[in-house]
Amino acid sequence: MKTVFTIGDLSREFDVTLRTLRFYEDKHLLSPRRQGMNRLYSRRDRARLKLILLGKKVGFSLVEIKEMLDLYDLKDGHVLQLRVALEKFGRQQEVLRRQKEDIEQAMEELDRTVSVIAGMLRDKEAEETGGERLEAAE
Q: Would the pTM count as exceeding 0.70?
């Protein structure tokens, strides 16, 4: 298993830009070592990147992600990190559930509106077609 990754390796593997990786480095989320002008990422950096992207995907801010990652570095057997993560994940689940309900409600309203507008369009098209037939008959 590979233990050192270049910025290009991680960029391709996780489908992120080089700029994104440098941004995460600037925010102290990743800490590659330098070899001349090259950034060399460890397996730890790779794992952190995976967690960063997962955190973003489920709606956490970079500040929240950094807080959780920093807790991982504490030498307390990771109990504190697990407690904080569990609490944050639970809150985020509630946020996402509410958003899902809001989206479902909005979709129902849009479905009804589309149905009404489609009916109105059919009626107008029928009127125009009927009106054209009457003119042609005269």
A: no
